[in-house]
Amino acid sequence: MPAVPINFLLNVIHGFFSLIYFGAVLIFGIFGPKLSKLSEGTVSDLMLTVFPTLMSFIEASGMITIVFGAGEFFFYMIGYYKDGGIIEVERILFSTDWGLCVFIGGILGIIGFSIGLYIASNFEKMFKLYRSLDPSVADEIRIVQNKIRLYSIIGLAFLTLTVIFMVLAVSFLPLPKEVMTAN
C-alpha cells in the first residue's frame, strides 16, 4: 500500500484547522459586537461558562494552523534548498507568483494570529472582570470590549488577506517546480 505523502497530510491538517480558526475569527469579528445588545445576565453567563472553553479551542486551532502551515512551508523550502541551496529558495520565494503568495500569506497569517493572541488576552481580562463582584468594573469592561471589537476587525482583515493569498497559491498557481515527496 502506497504511503500518504507528508505534504498532503500537512496540507489537510493545516487547511482543516485554518477553516475552524478563520470561521471563529469571522464569527467573533461580525457577531461579537452584537453581544452588547444581550442582557447583562446573559453576557455574564456566556463569559463565565461558554467563552473560556471556546477561546481555548480557538487558540488551539490557530496554533495547529500555524504549526502545520510552517511544516508545509519548510517541507517545500527544504526541497528547493536541496535543489539549489539558499539561492534557489530566495528565487522561489521572491521571483515566482506562488512563492510571493505563500510568503506574504504566511507573514500576514502570523500577524493575524498575533492579533488573535492579543484579543484572547483581552478576553481573559474580561472573564476576570465578569467574575469580579465589584460593580465598579463596568467601565473597565466596556473599555476591554471596545479593544476586542477593534482588534477583531483588524485581525479579521489580516486573516482574510491571508486566506486570499493562500487559496491563490494552492488553488490557482502551480508550484514553481515539483518537489519530491518524502517517503
TrEMBL record:
The transmembrane segments are: 12-32, 53-78, 98-120, 150-173
Judging by the UniProt lineage, the source's domain of life is: Archaea
Q: Which UniProt keywords apply?
A: Membrane, Transmembrane, Transmembrane helix
Protein's name in the database: Uncharacterized protein
Organism whose genome encodes this protein:
Sulfurisphaera tokodaii
